[in-house]
Specification:
The structure holds two protein chains of two kinds. Chain A is mainly alpha-helical. Chain A is 76% helix and 0% strand. Chain A contains twelve helices and no strands. Chain B has two domains: 219 residues, Rossmann fold; 76 residues, 2-Layer Sandwich (Alpha-Beta Plaits), CATH 3.30.70.100. In chain B, the strands form three sheets. In chain B, strands 6-7-8-3-9-10 form a six-stranded mixed beta sheet, with helices on both faces. A four-stranded antiparallel beta sheet of chain B has the order 2-1-4-5, covered by helices on one side. The chains are: A mainly alpha, B alpha/beta.
């Protein structure tokens, strides 16, 4: 090559080899995580795909801002809604967010068969699944945690009791962290089953709303029939009532179950186990799902 | 130096044997891997990328064992799949930058390498537009770019000319040639058209049913098989010009192939002559001129892939392979016809 350098200069600057660092698996996993997390909010994608996630983010935060405004001006002495309750009230918004963004996160790679390009690189299946799972859970944590931050800052501005508010805020964060992991796992599993984005969106919404609707209806019937024990166990069958049960038992929340009969610590332990099992199970199902789509 | 080495590599699935004691030794340069669908090409690529364990035997890529160093291999190897693999809603630049980072390149280097690589594969202003609007040829270039962006030492290209028109195919083949000559990257390229590989590759490996049929340098293939196709006009003195030329050429000491190509228009009027050197062309010209006939065409007939199967390396050819070779040869003929237009 050295002999014809004169010629090369005339035509082209030529091919340059890359001698720089190659940062390997861990770096690639981090890059995939940040790309997926940004993608969940439409960052680095078209303007059109920013609309929905940003809108939902605003819808999540605005009620919190209003509550803060009310608490500050009216000097009510407490926030209208406890930290742990906020996500339960706005569960529909969270459901919409996961339904729209989980398929976006995993279905595109399946549908356009981009997955083999990942697996022909240093990262492996576990890196891919972990990065996607973590990205989705973080995206959910941001959208559920941000309004809590608004509430907390507002409560401090309203000069509410600092220790009380900090404890409530911390409990709220733990609760939404669990919720984020659970919803991310379920959403990704459902979305990864189909390469079609539309089906994914519909399926996630169906699973979240149908299970919640069915559980709360049956719970209401059981409550009217006078069997509060059944109410507690029924809560195990939908994601949002699971979270409700866990935070009632361990995070000092008041339950939104009919009659406010949340599970105690004993039943609560079952709730917590089921939540953890679902999170781990989602991870295992995702790992299995991607075993088949290698090259 | 060896780029790819396999030693009695076998891969068995419950019902099929995909690779059967395959031993290869592939050096630097452009190597063609030929085989029918199901011959074991994809299985071999999977094993070479360290994504699928071999049932028996060993394989090494760039001197690294595929069983233990898969991740290290994939860091220095590029892979271009046969199927579509591009999301339509992002631009080529964004996509290739992302893939570069997945290969471990820092953000700044990923952007620089992407712009370099896209330019080298021939994508300029359009690289900022969403991939969905690209032609098949442009998409193939993006796929190639993502395989080259991390400056690998070896690229595995799976059917890179699939779906391209003749011009696009020629450009792609030229590009593949440059990957080795200009970029210094070794290439393993699969195809079912031997004629294509012959123009691009230094070395051709033919596998069938997971076994090695033949492995030799491209010049071996072409030297032994140069055939001239000659067609002449008839005249008043020679009402059957073809027959007259056949006799005259046989008398001049040239070897004529008895077999005519069935199924092609005017096949009965085409003489197939074995070319032993430059002087064969002169002899044909002089003979035809001497008989007072018109020379309609004299062209180098690309040899058929079926010839590979007529002289198998070790084993008798399976019926399936022979049948496939016949269809492949037909396809190649059509391809050659299109090229001429």
């Amino acid at each position: 090559m050295a002999t014809d350098s004169a010629q090369t200069q005339i035509h082209n600057i030529g091919y340059r080899n890359y001698d720089g660092p190659r940062l390997g698996r861990a770096y690639a996993r981090r890059s995939l995580f940040s790309q997926s997390l940004r993608g969940a909010y439409g960052l680095g994608r078209s303007a059109k795909s920013k609309v929905l996630p940003m809108l939902l983010f605003a819808v999540m935060c605005v009620p919190a801002a209003i509550m803060v405004a009310v608490a500050v001006t009216m000097k009510t002495g407490q926030l209208p809604v406890p930290y742990t309750r906020y996500a339960i009230y706005l569960q529909a918004v969270i459901g919409l967010f996961i339904a729209a963004q989980a398929p976006q996160t995993v279905s595109r790679d399946l549908r356009f068969k981009t997955v083999p390009l990942y697996f022909s690189r240093p990262i492996e299946r576990v890196d891919y699944v972990l990065a996607k799972f973590a990205a989705m859970a973080s995206a959910l944590f941001i959208i559920t945690g941000a309004p809590l931050v608004v509430l907390y800052i507002g409560s401090l501005l309203a000069k509410l009791d600092f220790a009380d508010q900090t404890k409530g805020f911390a409990e709220g964060l733990v609760s939404v962290a669990l919720l984020s992991l659970l919803f991310a796992g379920l959403g990704l599993v459902i979305a990864a089953l189909t390469p079609r984005r539309g089906f994914g969106v519909a399926a996630v919404i169906a699973v979240l709303t149908v299970s919640y609707g069915a559980v709360s209806a049956v719970q209401a019937i059981a409550f009217n029939q006078g069997s509060p024990g059944a109410v507690q166990w029924l809560g195990l069958f939908s994601p949002i009532t699971l979270i409700d049960g866990v935070q009632t038992a361990f995070l000092g929340a008041s339950s939104s179950f009919p009659g406010g009969h949340g599970p105690g610590s004993g039943t609560g332990a079952v709730y917590l186990l089921v939540v953890l099992a679902l999170i781990c199970g989602s991870y295992a199902v995702l790992m299995r799902r991607y075993r088949k789509v290698g090259l | 130096m060896t780029v790819i080495a396999t030693e009695s590599l076998s891969k068995r699935f419950p019902r099929v044997t995909a690779l059967d004691r395959l031993s290869l030794d592939i050096g630097p340069g452009v190597t063609g891997l030929v085989g029918a669908n199901g011959a074991g090409k994809s299985t071999l690529i999977k094993i070479l990328l360290g994504l699928s364990p071999a049932t028996e035997g060993t394989a090494a890529v760039l001197g690294l064992d595929v069983a233990t160093s898969g991740s290290a291999i994939r860091e220095r190897v590029g892979y271009m799949p046969e199927h579509d693999c591009l999301p339509p809603d992002v631009s080529a630049t964004e996509f290739v930058v992302h893939m570069a980072r997945m290969s471990g390149l820092p953000a700044t280097a990923a952007r620089e390498r992407t712009s370099d690589t896209l330019r080298h594969v021939g994508l300029y202003e359009e690289r900022y537009r969403p991939i969905g609007g690209y032609s098949t040829g442009m998409k193939q270039r993006v796929k190639l770019a993502q395989a080259l962006v991390h400056d690998p030492r070896l690229v595995l290209l799976d059917e890179p000319t699939n779906g391209l028109d003749p011009v696009g195919r020629d450009e792609m083949l030229g590009l593949i040639r440059r990957i080795h000559t200009d970029f210094g990257i070794s290439v393993l390229v699969t195809s079912h058209l031997l004629g294509e590989l012959e123009r691009t590759c230094d070395h051709v490996v033919v596998i069938d049913g997971g076994q090695l049929l033949r492995s030799s340098s491209t010049s071996d293939f072409t030297q032994t098989t140069t055939t001239l196709a000659v067609e002449v006009t008839d005249s008043d003195t020679h009402t059957d010009g073809t027959e007259a030329v056949r006799k005259a050429l046989t008398a001049a000491g040239l070897t004529l192939h008895a077999g005519v190509e069935d199924g092609l228009p005017g096949a009965g009027h085409i003489l197939l002559i074995e070319a032993t050197g430059e002087e064969t062309y002169d002899t044909v010209r002089d003979t035809v001129a001497g008989l007072g006939l018109g020379l309609v065409r004299m062209e180098q007939r690309r040899h058929h892939i079926s010839e590979v199967f007529q002289t198998p390396a070790r084993e008798p050819v399976s019926e399936r392979a022979a049948a496939w070779a016949a269809t492949a040869a037909g396809a190649e003929q059509k391809g050659a016809g299109r090229d001429g237009n």
